[in-house]
Specification:
two-stranded antiparallel ribbon, 7 strands, 38% helix, single chain, alpha/beta
Length: 168
Amino acid sequence: ALYARAHKGIDIELHLDALFGNLTVANLNFLSLFRECILQTQTPLGGWKVFRRAQRAFTLARYVERTAQLAAPKIECGVFQGFSALLACKVLKALDSGFDGSGYCLCDSYEGLSSPSEGDLIYPAGPANTNKAVLSHAMGHFAVDLNTVQARFGDFPGLDFQKGWIPE
């Protein structure tokens, strides 16, 4: 609530442009790439958190650009709506116009998060909450079915989609 009040009325687009407008990754304008991937994957963004999401995306894009030449398969564990994978694929395509997704595996349950266990308990800080644990998530949270995610990657027919739980 504090951040919401502090940032009420902020011109987010102005600040995004100031921070990321002139940055490039693989000769692509990063901010345009970021916006395109957000739209294509229908990834929700809210208020001031967009800056943190953009910074993380820029970091990922730079690492993808730097490691693209490594002759090793690439895997993403936990795909959700596909934003990070789409961003990575577009960077790889910009570096190699023949990139079709081959050698890139997207692994997810496509059913959301698993049933929480005792290890997923969170103990809020403060003396009044000493023994009051809450679950970190609900089963099925972040579910996006495989067909929905696959439909977002039409330009990358070589992608390998693996449906299953990460430890398995």
